[in-house]
């Protein structure tokens, strides 16, 4: 097998590891895999067309039309990238003999690629409501962006042989768009590298002697988070520390800057993936303070089972896909943007965060969601060995 994965950005971008990174490495480790190609947009043209990464995956970067974010719509319009895919297609045609070649879309970019090669199988692994604005705000630019991405995604949905979705909301959205067209669509939620979090006991030195219950968020810091709510909670609970670990993807969001002005809010900046468990071990309660929005209605956050694997209780907001995980002393969910309700929820979790039996239960729940198990399930649904 040769696997070609269409990804949102270059492998080490923002030092974050998403579902697609784990999927690529899982496929690379399979005995029947010959090569895995990581096809992605990039701000700059690479020195070499094909770059072999540290894990053996081969990156093929496609230079963006223009650097500014407003021009990223070109990733979804054929005329701007078709010629740039030529070297990838030539390599596939010259290297492939008896191998089967599988195309994996993990975001709706480069939709024309689905028809430029005779793929043995096309998979769409849908992890977001891509066309919806991440901030929840709508304007003329976001309306244009929504239309362009929706059209590109529709082409990929039509071309795909199999579709996976990370939440029931996304699955329902895809099935509504398919209409009566029969096509296998499965919900496979996000998982966790269980041993990586459960067995790591290092602790990051990040609090500079501060004392108090630590509420933490780890991941990309983006406008989908409710910074206003966290600021109010931080003012109300001066004996708590609110720790944010991750790259700033807010594009200068004023609410994020104002939240950081609170004395008990700490932001570390980005952390290398290998360092994440050490930061996780500083946290007493994991928080996922998402805004109410159509985008967040579809999200199944990566961090939920990572917090639980580390033995931490979690408070989530406006994430309907996670409500079925709710359990006392494990995970609590709320809707809305009331700081008082949020702090009350966290106070409830604070009472049992270090209880040994609760820690064991959290880890047990997370263990059942190990990535390896989930990806094996996905491969089983594809039946690649039986394809003609």
From TrEMBL:
<keyword id="KW-0808">Transferase</keyword>
<dbReference type="GO" id="GO:0016757">
    <property type="term" value="F:glycosyltransferase activity"/>
</dbReference>
<protein>
    <submittedName>
        <fullName>Teichuronic acid biosynthesis glycosyltransferase TuaH</fullName>
        <ecNumber>2.4.-.-</ecNumber>
    </submittedName>
</protein>
<keyword id="KW-0328">Glycosyltransferase</keyword>
<dbReference type="Pfam" id="PF13692">
    <property type="entry name" value="Glyco_trans_1_4"/>
</dbReference>
């Amino acid at each position: 097998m040769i696997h070609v994965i269409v990804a949102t950005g270059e492998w080490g971008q923002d030092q974050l590891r998403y579902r697609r990174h784990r999927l690529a490495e899982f496929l690379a480790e399979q005995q029947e895999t010959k090569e895995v190609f990581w096809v992605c947009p990039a701000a700059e043209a690479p020195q070499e067309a094909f770059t072999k990464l540290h894990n053996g995956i081969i990156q093929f970067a496609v230079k963006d039309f223009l650097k500014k974010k407003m021009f990223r719509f070109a990733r979804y319009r054929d005329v701007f990238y078709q010629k740039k895919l030529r070297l990838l297609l030539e390599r596939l045609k010259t290297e492939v003999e008896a191998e089967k070649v599988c195309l994996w879309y993990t975001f709706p970019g480069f939709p024309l690629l689905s028809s430029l090669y005779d793929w043995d199988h096309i998979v769409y692994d849908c992890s977001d409501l891509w066309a919806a604005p991440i901030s929840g705000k709508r304007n003329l630019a976001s309306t244009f962006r929504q239309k362009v991405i929706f059209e590109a995604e529709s082409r990929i949905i039509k071309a795909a042989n199999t579709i996976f979705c990370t939440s029931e909301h996304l699955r329902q959205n895809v099935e509504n768009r398919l209409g009566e067209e029969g096509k296998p669509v499965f919900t496979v939620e996000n998982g966790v590298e269980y041993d990586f979090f459960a067995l790591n006991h290092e602790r990051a030195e990040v609090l500079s002697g501060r004392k108090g219950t630590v509420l933490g968020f780890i991941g990309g810091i983006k406008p989908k988070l409710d910074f206003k709510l966290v600021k109010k909670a931080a003012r109300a609970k001066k004996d708590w520390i609110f720790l944010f670990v991750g790259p700033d993807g807010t594009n200068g969001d004023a609410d994020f800057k104002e939240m950081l002005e609170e004395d008990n809010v700490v932001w570390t900046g980005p952390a290398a993936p290998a360092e994440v468990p050490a930061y996780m071990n500083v946290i007493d309660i994991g928080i996922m303070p998402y805004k109410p929005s159509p985008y967040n209605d579809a999200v199944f956050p990566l961090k939920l089972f990572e917090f639980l694997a580390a033995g931490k209780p979690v408070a989530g907001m406006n994430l309907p896909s996670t409500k079925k995980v709710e359990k006392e002393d494990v995970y609590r969910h709320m809707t809305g943007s009331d700081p008082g309700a949020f702090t009350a929820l966290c106070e409830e979790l604070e009472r049992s965060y270090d209880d040994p039996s609760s820690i064991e239960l959290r880890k047990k729940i997370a263990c059942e969601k190990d990535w390896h198990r989930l990806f094996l399930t996905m491969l089983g649904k594809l039946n690649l060995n039986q394809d003609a």
